[in-house]
Amino acid sequence: EGVQPQEYTLIKMEVLSPFPPKLGVLEGRRVFLAAATLRPETMYGQTNAWVLPDGKYGAFEITDTEVLILTQRAALNLAYQSYSRIPEKPSCLVELTGSDLIGLPLRSPLSFNEIIYALPMMTVLTDKGTGIVTSVPSDSPDDYIALHDLKSKPGLRAKHGVKDEWVLPFDIIPVINIPEFGDRAAEKVCMDMKIKSQNDKEKLAEAKKLTYLKGFTDGTMIVGDFAGRRVQEAKPLVRTKLLEMGLAITYSE
Ligand code: A2H
C-alpha cells in the first residue's frame, strides 16, 4: 500500500431481478455490486465485473431500500467515512462467496452494454478496494487479458460455471485515444509486451503503469458526454456526474 490514501470511486452496478436462490433474502430491495475504480471516465466501455471466486463478500444494508455487495473490510471502511450513510456497524444481510456472484446480470452506470455479467478473475485482491472490479478491456491490461483468457479457454469457463453468453458477445469498446497506442491501448500494450495470460503478473504490472500514465497525460475521450476533451479534464467531470446521479460513492483507503 502507498503512503498516500487512494481516492476511489465506487460504481454501483445494479443486480437485475429475479435474484438467484443465494440472494433470495434480498428480493424487493435494490442490490448493487460496489466496484472500486480509479478511472471513472472509462465507464462507457464496461464489459463485465470481476470477482474472486474464493473471496468472501457480504450484502450490507446502506439505506432502508439499498444494499451493497462488497468485502466486509470495505463495508467497515465505508462506515467510518463521514459521507457514508452506512450505520457504524454495518449489518450483513447475507454472507456470500465470489462463486455465488458469478453470472449475476448487472446494469452499470454509463455502460454502453446495457447488461453485463459478474465473472471470475484470479488476481482480484480482497484486501484492496471492495474486492469487486469493473472491467474495461479497452484501457485496463488486467481486464483485457482476463477477458481474453475466459474467451479463449472453454475449460476455464467450465471450471467456474461461466456460460458462453456471459462472455463471448462482449468485445472491446474504444473509449479513449492515446496517440502512441490508439483506441484500444490495453490490447496494444499486452500484444507489444507479449503478455499471454493473467498469470504474467510482473509484465502486467508494467503494462498497467504504462497505459495508466499515458492515458492520463496524452489521452482524449472519443465517446460519451465529454468526447473530444482530455482525459485529465474528463475524469473529475464524469466522477461528479456519477455522484450526482446517485450511482457512485466516494471511498478512500
Ligand atoms: B481500475 P491501485 Cl480502465 N483487486 O478501474 C485488483 N484490482 C483492483 C481491485 C482489487 N481488489 N480494486 C480495484 N482494482 C483495479 C478501471 C481501470 C483501472 C482502467 C485502467 C486502469 C485501472 C477498470 N478496471 O487501474 O492498485 C481497478 O481497475 C490501474 C491503476 O489502487 C482500479 O482502477 O492503484 C485499480 O485497480 C486500482 O489500483
TrEMBL record:
Highest rank taxon of the organism: Eukaryota
Alphabetical UniProt keywords: Aminoacyl-tRNA synthetase, ATP-binding, Ligase, Nucleotide-binding, Protein biosynthesis
One Gene Ontology MF term: aminoacyl-tRNA deacylase activity
Entry keyword annotation includes Aminoacyl-tRNA synthetase: yes
GO biological process: leucyl-tRNA aminoacylation; post-embryonic development; reproductive structure development
The family this protein is said to belong to: Belongs to the class-I aminoacyl-tRNA synthetase family.
Name of protein: leucine--tRNA ligase
Taxonomic path: Eukaryota, Viridiplantae, Streptophyta, Embryophyta, Tracheophyta
Residue span relative to the full protein: 260 to 512 of 871
